[in-house]
Amino acid sequence: MQRLKIDHLDSLLLHRPDALMESDQVAEAFDLLYKQGKVRDFGVSNQNPMMMELLKKDVKQPLAVNQLQLSAAFTPGFESAFHVNMEDSQAAMRDGSIFEYCKLHDVVIQAWSVLQFGYFKGNFVGNEKFQALNQVLDRLAIKYGVTSSTIAISWILRYPAKMQAVVGTTNPKHLREVSRAANFSLTRKEWYEIYLAAGNNLP
Fold first, then answer.
1. Is 3 a member of any domain?
2. Residue at 162 is within a domain
3. DSSP letter assigned to residue 127
4. Is 177 within the bounds of a domain?
5. Which tens digit of pLDDT belongs to each residue from 167-196?
6. Which terms in the GO cellular component ontology are assigned (predicted)?
């Protein structure tokens, strides 16, 4: 914090699960940081509901945030929900219904890799591998007077939970452009159109 010239952190997140984590030790560290005024809120990253419940057994402070990978081209959390009680591979529950859990407990979902497909495989906006998706994004960008990237982020924000998008850019112009995603809301039809254009299907 000295290097950043700040006296506190707004949020401190535990990054990635740790099989050897001792929740009582985490609670002790959180208590110390909170009492010293060095951290205001705590959260996690890439953790499922049972991992969060394990932490909550000892941690006194609310887990206010969970950072989860989500983009129009990376939607495994939604696929398992859509394919409940079906035999296809998309019905496999990989995250313990973490999106629904966060909604239920008012946990902010901070989506990361919001313009990426796969696990750091690249940007899908303007990518010829995603022609159908980009056609929809481009058309809606014209309708709303924004960029295609802004539409892709608006798609994330349209999910009815406490949603935030983590945008990794050092370009002020790009940041201003994508921030406009908070100024409008896609229709239900448009949200599902983007979901399907990304190569997903609905039962």
1. no
2. no
3. -
4. yes
5. 988 889 999 999 999 999 999 999 999 999
6. cytosol
pTM above 0.85, yes or no: yes
Q: What is the pLDDT of residues 129-142, one digit of tens each?
A: 999 999 999 999 99
Q: How far is CA 39 from the centre of its chain?
A: 22
Torsional sign, CA 54, 60, 62, 68: negative
Flag whether 194 is in a domain: yes
Give the Cβ contact number of residue 133 at 10 Å. Answer: 25
| Angle, alpha carbons 43-45-50 (nearest 5°) | 85
What is the CA 81 to chain-centroid distance, rounded?
16
Cβ atoms 162, 106 nearer than 8 A: yes
Which residues sit opposite 111 in a β-bridge? Answer: 68, 165
Residue 30 belongs to what H/E stretch?
helix 23-35
| Number of compact structural domains in the chain | 1
Residues of the domain holding 187 = 70-90+112-157+168-203
